[in-house]
Amino acid sequence: MAENDFAAIAVDALDEDQARAELARLAALIARADVAYHTEDAPVMSDAAYDAAKRRNSAIEARFPHLKRADSPSDTVGARTAEGFAKVRHAVRMYSLANAFDPADLADFDESVRSFLGLSPEAPLAYTAEPKIDGLSLSLRYERGRLVQAATRGDGTEGENVTANARTIAEIPQRISGAPDVLEVRGEVYMGHDDFAALNARQEAAGQKPFANPRNAAAGSLRQLDPTITAARPLKFFAYAWGEVSAPLADTQIGAIERLARLGFPTNPLTRLCTSRDEMLAQYAAIEAQRATLPYDIDGVVYKVNDLALQARLGFRSTTPRWAIAHKFPAEKAWTWLEGIDIQVGRTGALSPVARLHPVTVGGVVVANATLHNEDYIAGRDANGNPIRGGKDIRIGDWVEVYRAGDVIPKVADVDLTKRPPEAKPFVFPTTCPACGSAAVREPGDSVRRCTGGMACPAQAVEKLKHFVSRGAFDIEGLGAKQVEMFYNDASLPIREPADIFTLEARNATALAKLQNREGWGEKSAQNLFAAINERRHIPLRRVIYALGIRHVGEAAAGLLARHYITWEAFETAMTSATPGTGAAWEELLNIDGVGEVMANSLVTAFHQPAERASIDRLVAELEIEPEALPDTSSSPVAGKTLVFTGTLEKMTRAEAKARAEALGAKVAGSVSARTDLVIAGPGAGSKAKKAAELGIETIDEDEWLALIGEA
Questions:
Q1: pLDDT, tens only, 418-450
Q2: Residue ending a domain, choose from 299, 328, 357
């Protein structure tokens, strides 16, 4: 459950403690939404609400980069695949989209694209604008014109093989002619409004549960284990992108979409080419005006840079392309009454209040819970004592407004005091942990009240284990949150720390028999679990670093660390020998571009805490940790070198230069040190160029840099 929140406070008004608490809340809530939406086909929030949460999370991380969490939503795409389908590794990753919610966000996007490319505000730059279909993402792989594979997005890297089901969708061609030998077509599977209504009528007539909305129906239909059920469902498809191709489709986005249409794929007729922000906003307004009359659900408009060469230059962030954004439609609100307040404990010990609501429909989804963030939020004040919601507190029995503006479990935005029951009393926040009875302490200046029980607190221990088996970490098939809770509470087959997962079978000679005799388990499922555990003994370094759950180390940061240290042995040695504030190991850690003092302190502290270090050592003893897989840079002149860019680059932006250097296998540092191999200095280079000269480090200008990498 989410830890805390200051959602009533603007991002630029948050102090560091408030920001940390808000990031904790968003991380937990968004993770739950990902699982509900991508894995369970049972969304618990609208897309607009989800997107607003991720946007707020990103804004806070941009303002406080050193507070970025290990489970940051900024580093995730989708959720782990469901059980029952074979997994497919995408040849080209399937990314999600960043979001815009108003014209100012669109202007920021356009400016960021131009800044990255070094274009002036007046320079011509075209975008496509198309409706954002509310369905399920699907990737179709064609080889020599024949459909050979269909896969869901999953977590972006790995999806589910739904080829048999996709073949039953009439709008998906089985064969195409005139296409590249290898072509991955990507698009959205959806269900029209009339078809959805007819399907639900059949469901109810058969005494079965109706679907909540067309997206839920489409996802559930595509992911049937029996293809004949999928075939009976009225699914449709829009193509809008591509993955791996053996030859380019076109030079532009609009040209590629037209090419897909000529190959026989349905494309959206509302797609337009726009040459200015005003045209983009006009197309947004035109599509929004038609939203109610369209035969399918949409939740916004997607803009993409039209020139594919510019898309290639812009590249990708950890989870989103720099060249595209989704301009979302507004969210919704609803009123209901508060039936109770529960207290839940997160993996860092934070006590999080949760509102139990009389069920209400918000944005087409029935909700019964909402986050109340923390004790200050309930009391109607922020951490500094300033009033929020006009100073109105929240009491059991209150009539409350639920605002789905970005929470997996929505938030209570307001209270109607005219309907407050006379017997309603102010809520008294507990000072002891409801899970273990330990004191729950709120340190001076902290907005979070935390259980002091540590790993002796079952709630904290369970949440840490859930993180360990999460998607970006070990992602063990058949061992999810529910199974973790079962094993933690099982005295005969206990899992109390990560290493216990890998010793479970060896510690108990009858483990298989005990497990297969439990309700919900059989011989095959038990054998599959142990096989899945053993399969994860071989695991990439970045997953291990992320799985450790060290505060401020998200998936992106784990990737940075893995690319820098390459092997577990080098990483472990560096963390063990580093001393905060001094020494070569500490300097090297801080010199990794993207690692700040807060993250560095968390890393080093984790490896110097005796109990935590012992737990890490027990885990590593059970694993074979694979070195970080680096791109083939055998012909790169800068592979393995540490570079520093300083001054003003005139032929490419700093961001583009960094991305290009990393693609060539170089490490880009933020400061010059004795470990620096090369400095690229543009006009205005100051202290970094001076220090490079003092250390005798080679320094070249931008033209020499471009000549070096073969782009002069």
A1: 999 999 999 999 999 999 998 999 877 778 898
A2: 328
pLDDT in tens, 220-266: 888 887 888 888 889 999 999 999 999 999 999 999 999 999 999 99
Residue ranges in the chain whose pLDDT is less than 50: 1-5, 81-83, 406-407, 712
- Does one domain contain both 153 and 245? yes
Q: By the 8 A CB rule, do 574 and 585 touch?
A: yes
pTM over 0.85: no
Q: Tokens representing 40?
A: 């369970």
Q: Which amino acid, 101? A: F
Domain boundary among 278, 293, 328: 328
Q: Is 132 one of the annotated active-site residues of the chain?
A: yes
Number of domains in the chain: 4
Considering the domain architecture, whether residues 216 and 161 belong to the same structural domain is answered as yes
Amino acid at residue number 192: G
Q: Which of 132, 236, 328, 667 is catalytic?
A: 132
Are both 187 and 306 inside the same structural domain? yes
- Give the list of residues 6+ apart from residue 432 with CB closer than 8 angstroms, or none: 438, 439, 440
Residue 220 shares a structural domain with residue 274: yes
